[in-house]
Amino acid sequence: MAERHDWQAESTPRARPPASASVINVETAPHADAADTLIRFERVTKYYGEGDKRVHVVDDVSFTARRGEFISILGPSGCGKSTMMMLTSGLIPVSSGTIEIDGTRIAEPYTDLGIVFQQDLLMDWRRVLGNILVQPEFRGLRVKDYEARARELLNLVGLAGCEDKYPFELSGGMRQRVAICRALIHNPNLLLMDEPFGALDALTRDQMNLDLQRIWYENKKTVLFVTHSIPEAVFLGDRVFVMAPAPTKIRESIEIKLPRPRDLEIRESPAFAAYIHRITQLFYQMGILRS
Amino acid sequence: MTVAEREHAVGGGRAWFRNTLDRYGTPLAIAVTLFAVWELGVRLGNVPAYLLPPPTAVFKSLVHDWKVIYLNITPTLIAIVGGFALSVVIGIPLATFIVFSRFAERILYPPMIASQAIPKIAIAPLFVVWMGFGVMPKIWIAFLIAFFPVVIDTVIGLRSVQPEMLQLGRSMGGGTLRVFLKLRLPNALPNIFGGLKVAITLAVVGAITGEFVGSQSGLGYLLTSASGQMDTALVFAVLLTISIIAMVLFMIIETVEKLVIPWHSSMRSRNVGH
Question: What is the complex's ipTM, to 2 decimals?
Answer without folding.
Answer: 0.77
